[in-house]
Amino acid sequence: MPKRDKILVLFDSAGPTTLEHDYTDELQTEDWKTEAHVMATLKELGYPYEILGLHDDTDLLRQKLTTFEPDVIFNMVEHFGNLSSAEHKITSFLELQGIPFTGCSAVGITLCKNKSIAKKILSYHRIRVPDFVVLPMGRKIKRPKRLRFPILIKPLKEEASYGISQASFVESDDDFNERVKFIHEKFDQPAIAEEYIVGRELYVGIMGNHRLQTFPAREMIFHEVPEDEPRFATFKVKWDYDYRERWGIENDFAELDADMARRIEKLCKRIYHLLLIDGYARIDLRLTPEGEIVFIEANPNPMLASDEDFAVAAEKAGFPYPRLIQRILQIGKTTIRD
Known about the structure:
It is a single chain. The protein folds into 3 domains: 7-101, no CATH class; 131-195, 2-Layer Sandwich (Dna Ligase, domain 1); 198-334, ATP-grasp fold, B domain (D-amino Acid Aminotransferase, Chain A, domain 1), CATH 3.30.470. Helix 1 (33-45) packs across helix 11 and helix 3 (87-97) runs antiparallel to helix 4 (106-113). It has helices spanning 33-45, 58-68, 87-97, 106-113, 115-124, 173-187, 235-239, 241-246, 258-274, 309-316, 321-334; strands at 7-12, 49-54, 72-75, 132-135, 151-155, 169-170, 191-195, 200-208, 212-214, 218-222, 249-253, 279-287, 293-300. Strands 8, 9, 10, 11, 12 and 13 form a 6-stranded antiparallel beta sheet that branches. A 4-stranded antiparallel beta sheet has the order 4-7-5-6, with helices on one face. Helix content is 35%, strand content 21%. The radius of gyration is 20 Å and the shape is globular. By secondary structure, the chain is α+β, with helices and mostly antiparallel strands. The chain is built from 11 helices and 13 strands. Strand 12 (279-287) and strand 13 (293-300) form a beta hairpin.
């Protein structure tokens, strides 16, 4: 039997930690289910692995790499020093170590994290994106006349709908100014304001580097939200399970005709390559009532819990969870980092 690769499972720690920190209690909670699912699957697959939580001290990582000498790093780090905008710095550090790791490279993460850069690149290549404007800090807040209401206002460099609430949907200049100011003060970063696109909310998982595997589209469905009310993924809509139940919000496989499914698959593969994504990602789209596909954002290294959209869609595409984790490891090990 061939020798199994040694895996270092690398993830976020909310505060300073040590090499010997025991994460047993954390791994029993809902917030840590992704890490728990991945580790349980690595154990099931027979991989020897050790774990390390990373906060703001890369010296701990250097020590771990020296003592454990992993063959592959299973990278689930999304923050550094509690800043999600610094995720690419850890990925860059991993690239410098010359050790294979799972997920996206630093350049892909950087392009996708900055929502305005991603949209500019895709717009240049004639892919429909919402009209938008970036509102930097320290400047007068003013809506350009070309940007028409209703508008969604978000932090420029956050993900997982962090910073998005019902108050993000604005229909007046006073509300526009107030929300942009809130983003500046609360998140200490620029705001992006973009036109609200009426339509269905779709999520498409993709895996690979050059040869890509796409998964069936998932859709966020708003059963109890009136048709004339805005429907978009706020933080509560995504993560507050009581709120989701109250409003009849669920994620399910999107019902699409064959032609539309092919169009979406082709477009998502193109987006993946244009934004220099590798490893695995989720592409978020809006499908308008007229059948137009609009790019919203790309999420490299999406949540990998076995019951979340990416893994559920992967299973339908023929990748049950153990096979999915195995494939992500294989892709990470064979990726050439320039």
